Each structure stands twice: as C-alpha cells, then as structure tokens.
Amino acid sequence: MNIFISNSSKEPIYEQIKKQIKQSIYRGEVQEGDLLPSIRQLAKDLQISVITTKRAYEDLEREGYITSVVGKGSFIAGQNMELIREKRIQLIEERLTEIVDECKELDVSLDQLKEIIELLYKEER
Amino acid sequence: MNIFISNSSKEPIYEQIKKQIKQSIYRGEVQEGDLLPSIRQLAKDLQISVITTKRAYEDLEREGYITSVVGKGSFIAGQNMELIREKRIQLIEERLTEIVDECKELDVSLDQLKEIIELLYKEER
DNA sequence: ATATTGTATATATTATATATATACACAAGG
DNA sequence: CCTTGTGTATATATATAATATATACAATAT
Span B13-76: which CATH code? Predict the structure, then answer.
C-alpha cells in the first residue's frame, strides 16, 4: 500500500493517512486481513513521528476500518465495507434532502445547485 | 434594551450579547432604527472591555442585523431579506463542502453526486 | 535473545478563539 | 472651537484546542 502526504496541504497529516487508507478500502484495492505498513515503517517512509501514524491507525481502528495487534501489526478489518459505504451514502442523502428543501425555499434552481456542487467538487484541497 | 451576561456560562461574552440582541429583534421588542446602547456604555455596564462589545456589534453588522455610524451610534437595521438569503446560501455551501469531501472519500464521482441531487430535487414537491 | 510490532505517558508546537488596552477618527452640541 | 460622546484600528495578551513529537514500555515472532 502506497501512502503519500502533501506538505503544502493544510490538512493534518493523520487525516491524509486516514483518507488514503479508507479510499483503498472503498476502491477494493485491499481486502480483509491485508497487512498494513507498520506504524514505525510508515513513519520512517513519510519522515514523520510514530505518534502521528499511531494517531491515524488509532482513529481507523475506533471507526472499525482496521484492527491492530501488538507485536503482529495492523490489518484491514473484516467488515462489509460496501455495506458501510452504502450506509454513509444514505446519511449523505439525508443531509442532501435537507439542503435541497432549503434551496427550494430560497428559490435556488436545480441548475444553480448543480453549479455550486461542481465548483466545490473541483476545488482542490 | 437590557443585556445580561453570565460569567458562569462557557459561552463567549460576545456571543451572549449577539444572541440577546438577535432575540430582541426576532421577538419584535425592537424596531428598525432603534438606538442600541453604545459599545462604551454597554462595556461599562457589563464591566467588560470595549473590544468585546465592539466584537459583538461588528458581527451583528456583518450579519445584517444592525448598522453602526461613527459618532452617532448603533441602530437596529431594516431586515434585508436578500442579505439574509445570501447568508443562508453561504451556510448551505459550507454544509455542501463537507458533503463533497465525504463523497470524494467514498469515491462517489461528480456525476453520481449530481444524479443524486437531481433525483432528490425532482422527488419532493 | 533480539528484532519487530503496537501502546502509554508526558510534552512541545502551532493555530484559533477570546478578551484586552490604547490611540485614532468622526459627529453633535454647547 | 472644543469638549464629550460615538465607532474604528492596531497591536497584544491569554486561554484553549488541534496537531505533532520523543521516549520509555509491553507483547509477539523467529
């Protein structure tokens, strides 16, 4: 698994790591039980502290994406990721419903809304 | 206009001031053009710094609730609906930014997102 | 044993939010 | 005018939260 960090990004390093690992899972690039880079190795590769990689893995573990075992390593968790993805998309749809309602109330057209979305989507982070 | 602050509250002083003035407006206790206490007088009454009252009034002015004139004072503004609309759209954009970020994380494409929006928009009447 | 793994504690650094003091600029009324 | 009351601008202090670190500890594998 290749993980990169951008120094120019204002996004915290541990967030960058978390996102990339999550994306690998969502894209099916990794599977249940796959071994992740050790927090030490990853820290060395990225030239950052062990604490920061630890922080990322700790968060991911709490969120159910990975499991860590002392002395062995960290592994992709055995859960139905597609199900989790669907659930999250469902949550997004609920929030979008509220937004759509509010847009109608404010007389924001569908095209205008799409345009806003497009701008936000293309904005680099 | 009577304004109180609680120093036991964890809410910032300027927020307490802002809320009370907004509520007076919403409740119709004050009308367009009404004079507010001067930032100095209010600061003295509440035994806080002028900067803090200034901060509250400054925010309220930016949000369109009041207007301030040097040498004269601060007044309740006429509620400008277009301004309020702009403000609400801005809030929507902030929420959309979060959603877009999450979509990227979940590998949901711009087109897919647009499609979801379109369905939701046309769905409800 | 030794090297590799994750963990825990205490701490430093940075960023942001909140509040302040003080000097400045404009307006009104004696 | 000029004094007093208004809002404004600048530079700064303080507190809190977010981010990142160093280092010592504990479990596992070989």
Answer: 1.10.10.10
Tell me the CA distances in angstroms from B51 to A77, A104, B70, B77, B78, one per residue in order.
52, 40, 15, 21, 25
Q: Cα–Cα distance between A21 and A120 in angstroms, integer?
A: 23
Which chain D positions come under 7 Å from a protein C-beta? Answer: 5-11, 18-24, 26-29
What pLDDT digit, counting tens, does each position of A7-56 carry?
Answer: 778 899 999 999 999 999 888 899 999 999 999 999 999 999 999 999 99
Report how far residue B118's alpha carbon sits from residue B100's, in angstroms, rounded to the nearest whole number. 15
The string of pLDDT tens digits covering residues B84-123 is: 788 788 888 888 988 998 898 888 999 999 999 999 999 8
Q: Do A114 and B116 touch (CB under 8 A)?
A: no
**Helix, strand, or coil (residue A74):** strand
Confidence (pTM): 0.75
Q: Write down the residue that tokens 């390593």 correspond to.
A: A73
Query: Residue B4 carries which side chain, given as an amino acid letter?
Result: F
Domain definitions of chain A by residue range: 13-76, 81-122
